[in-house]
């Protein structure tokens, strides 16, 4: 058994390879049961959530990610997401690796957004707005740039000082990076909008979106969390990462409950896009809306990549 810390995981999980690994996993498929949610109440801050996310490719690999999400961690200067991934042999059940979960989660999450953008964002999309100032905000630019010619990046956060700190970190990235002080104006000028927050109230209004925009909603993972409003749903072609998003994501659950959205309005998930069952974007003026909640097959794909790169002679046939 091997153990990989955050730095070791980061070193082998480059974003182009991670996007490719996710594409292959969604094409080939695996067993991916619905994840388990457990609310963790506490006296010293907002309630946390424990997530258990299993997936397996029969006779090859099986794995499970154990994740705790504590929204109050920002006040403690800690990441909101804490976790670990355990990878097993699919043939014998023996433990092969334990992998630091935060780095794996962050990289597979932004890789899933990039994979969706390869089908849903305009091929000439070059202006990206990132809404949020956490770990994912720092990675989202590089991820979308794997599949689209990103040149200009705007970053918005509720706390301008945090947004400025992220912009400073991205200063040597080769992109034209600025702090967005007016969210409405920034959204109206963006080709791609990636929201990576834990918001419970809509941040992006559909009325702001210009034709051809791709809206990438990442942060919300419970029925109460929402980053976009009803008008964004009405104006957009809706896509999801996996069917679990319909039951878990407030950006979909709330408009489904009110009748703004029906399940029939959801065009496709990532598997259908990768397999070619749906073409994705069909016109330059189409507004596309991608909602991800994270999926265990994404974690498994990333964990296999980490393990096989760390143990190149130990790949399971």
Automatic annotation (TrEMBL):
Any GO CC annotation of this UniProt entry: cytoplasm
A Pfam family hit: OCD_Mu_crystall
UniProt record similarity statement: Belongs to the ornithine cyclodeaminase/mu-crystallin family.
PANTHER family referenced in this protein's UniProt entry, alphabetically: KETIMINE REDUCTASE MU-CRYSTALLIN (PTHR13812:SF19)
Protein's name in the database: Ornithine cyclodeaminase family protein
Gene3D superfamilies according to UniProt: NAD(P)-binding Rossmann-like Domain (3.40.50.720), ornithine cyclodeaminase, domain 1 (3.30.1780.10)
MF-aspect GO terms: oxidoreductase activity
Biological process terms in GO annotation: carboxylic acid metabolic process
Alphabetical list of NCBIfam families matching this protein: PRK06141.1
């Amino acid at each position: 058994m091997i153990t990989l810390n955050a730095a070791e995981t980061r070193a082998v999980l480059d974003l182009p390879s991670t996007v490719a690994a996710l594409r292959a996993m969604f094409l080939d498929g695996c067993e991916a049961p619905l994840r388990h949610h457990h609310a963790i109440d506490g006296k010293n801050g907002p309630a946390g959530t424990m997530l258990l996310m299993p997936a397996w490719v029969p006779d090859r690999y099986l794995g499970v990610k154990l994740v705790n999400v504590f929204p109050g961690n920002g006040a403690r200067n800690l990441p909101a997401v804490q976790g670990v991934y355990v990878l097993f042999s699919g043939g014998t059940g023996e433990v092969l690796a334990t992998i630091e979960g935060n780095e794996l989660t962050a990289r597979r999450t932004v890789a899933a957004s990039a994979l969706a953008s390869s089908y849903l964002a305009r091929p000439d999309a070059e202006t990206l707005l990132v809404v949020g100032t956490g770990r994912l905000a720092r990675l989202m630019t590089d991820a979308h740039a794997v599949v689209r010619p990103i040149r200009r990046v705007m970053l918005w956060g509720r706390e301008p000082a945090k947004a400025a700190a992220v912009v400073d970190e991205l200063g040597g990235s080769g992109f034209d990076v600025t702090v967005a002080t007016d969210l409405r104006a920034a959204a109206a000028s963006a080709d791609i909008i990636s929201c990576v927050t834990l918001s419970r109230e809509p941040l992006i209004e559909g009325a702001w979106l210009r034709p051809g925009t791709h809206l990438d909603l990442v942060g919300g993972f419970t029925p109460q969390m929402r980053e976009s409003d009803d008008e964004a749903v009405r104006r957009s072609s809706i896509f999801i990462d996996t069917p679990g998003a319909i039951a878990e994501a407030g950006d979909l659950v709330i408009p489904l409950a009110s009748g703004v959205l029906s399940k029939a309005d959801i065009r496709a998930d990532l598997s259908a896009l990768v397999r070619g069952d749906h073409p994705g974007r069909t016109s330059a003026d189409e507004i596309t809306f991608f909602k991800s909640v994270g999926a265990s097959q994404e974690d498994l794909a990333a964990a296999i990549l980490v393990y096989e790169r760390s143990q190149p002679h130990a790949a399971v046939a």
